User: Fold this.
Amino acid sequence: MLNILAAILLFGFVIMFHELGHFLLAKANGVEVTEFSIGMGPRLVSRVWRGTRYSLKILPLGGSCAMADEDTESGNPNGFLSKSVWARISIIAAGPIFNFILAFFFGIIIVAYRGYDLPVITNIVEGYPAEAAGLKAGDLILSVNGRRMLEYQDLSMYLQLHPEEELEIVYGRLPEGQAEDPSAWYQKDLSYETGTTTLRTIYNEETQSYMMGIEHYSNYHPVEGLGKLLRLGWHQVALQGQAAIESFRLLFRGYVGADDVGGPVRIVAGIGQMVEEIRPEGWFIVLLNLINWGMFLSASLGAVNLIPLPALDGGRLAFLLVEAVRGKAIDQEKEGMVHFAGMMVLLALMIVIMFNDIRNLIF
Assistant:
């Protein structure tokens, strides 16, 4: 029971932090916030303070920041629509930005504790593309299709998100003798040769994934310096956010099925299972894993919300940016119809995802 509770609290905290961004920027711009709620559905606890109702609702998977005149202008000088377009942009953008801030904070904690793991090849698997492409054990993957690989996680995620694509790989190779020790790559002022090769990943039925044919044994190294720590912490945020957006591309291309898309129920179940499995290792390890999940959830929520689709923050920002450019707002009724249609589609999608989550958990 505690594992599910921990998962629900983490999920709720990430969403609450998103809504907190909207709330704080609304208050800073003098917008009347009618209700700030954590959760969805009927209220469990509610209190009005300084004109805003603060509510805790029965379903802990959601939240909202309701503002006066958010959709229809009534002449309220403190209403959302009465504020300048740039004030409204700042309020809407604050939700995803706060998610990135939270994910960045979590990312710094994770990197500070575990260090970083360079994408050094440990072994080459016979018969796979990496062998034919001339890669060797001890090589460091520097970039793939122009994207720099800072950690092995970059490489593994890129391969998952770009199946069957031609990959141009730039690698580094140490002189004979040094290549046997992967730790050599963590030394400063190294002298090494670079090379470029191309390959395509192939599907492995056993692992059910696309592989290039390399093995990697983790070799985490402490981070030296605050600057590098901050850079690697932000890199974790960018990596998770980018993966969330690119997953949609795989969905439309048919590499990801509808049953593979997880919603709140599956996420909570997954976090709960993780807590249950690693709890014997101690609550400190559990906390670190929860922080890692929090980083993933917060970065993903921030990135997905910036997609310019109706009903998402990105869709509202798109309308506001058009207004800023043309100097005139789009007709509120037409914009409202677009957002309402988007909300209906989003709700339908959430119902389908929740149904799949529950079905997969039961069967």
User: Anything to note?
Assistant: The chain has a mean pLDDT of 85.
